[in-house]
């Protein structure tokens, strides 16, 4: 059970090269967060619409400042976890995209997050 008094955090990326995170410090895993100017609810709706346009992407958990999606690969049916945390004070969306299994991902998680950046650019 999640303690409502403890702020939610994104897990760190594992040592494997199949994860990107806005909280990572090393170049292999680090990626820039998204910024937003709209009210939180509107920014969240824009992000959800972008994710909804991606194939095999399913929202599995949501609260006021958090979204968790599962993205299933087409051929092997591997599942990646994609999480977003909204920081209303900083108007920043932190995220993490990681494969559940395997070692490498051939850059799939990074490309996915850059595609989401492209889909939301100028709309947040």
Shape: globular
Q: Compute the CA-based radius of gyration.
A: 14 Å
Named at the architecture level, the CATH assignment is: 2-Layer Sandwich
Number of helical stretches of at least 4 residues: 2
* Percentage of β-strand residues: 25-35%
Percentage of residues assigned to helices: 10-25%
**Termini gap:** 31 Å
CATH homologous superfamily heading: Kinase associated domain 1, KA1
Spans of 5+ residues with little confidence (pLDDT < 50)? none
* Helix-and-strand structural type: alpha+beta
Number of strands: 6
Quickly list its features.
single chain; 124 residues; alpha+beta; 6 strands; globular
Question: Could you characterize what this model shows?
Answer:
This protein is an alpha+beta fold and 124 residues long. It has one domain: Kinase associated domain 1, KA1 (TATA-Binding Protein), CATH 3.30.310.80. The chain is built from two helices and six strands. Strands 1, 2, 3, 4, 5 and 6 form a six-stranded antiparallel sheet that branches. Strand 5 and strand 6 form a beta hairpin. The protein is globular, with a radius of gyration of 14 Å. The N and C termini lie far apart (31 Å).
In short:
The chain has helices at 40-52, 108-120; strands at residues 19-21, 34-35, 57-63, 66-72, 79-87, 92-99. It has 124 residues and is of the alpha+beta class.
Question: How are the SSEs ordered, and which strands pair?
Answer:
Blueprint lengths: L18 E3 L12 E2 L4 H13 L4 E7 L2 E7 L6 E9 L4 E8 L8 H13 L4
Antiparallel strand pairs: 1-6, 2-6, 3-4, 4-5, 5-6
């Amino acid at each position: 059970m999640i303690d409502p008094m403890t702020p939610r955090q994104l897990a760190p990326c594992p040592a494997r090269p199949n994860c990107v995170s806005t909280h990572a410090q090393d170049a292999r895993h680090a990626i820039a967060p998204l910024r937003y100017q709209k009210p939180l609810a509107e920014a969240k709706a824009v992000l959800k619409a972008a994710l909804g346009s991606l194939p095999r992407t399913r929202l599995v958990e949501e609260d006021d400042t958090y979204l968790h999606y599962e993205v299933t690969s087409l051929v092997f049916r591997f599942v990646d976890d994609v999480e977003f945390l909204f920081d209303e004070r900083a108007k920043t969306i932190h995220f993490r995209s990681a494969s559940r299994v395997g070692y490498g991902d051939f850059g799939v998680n990074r490309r996915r997050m850059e595609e989401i950046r492209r889909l939301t650019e100028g709309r947040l």
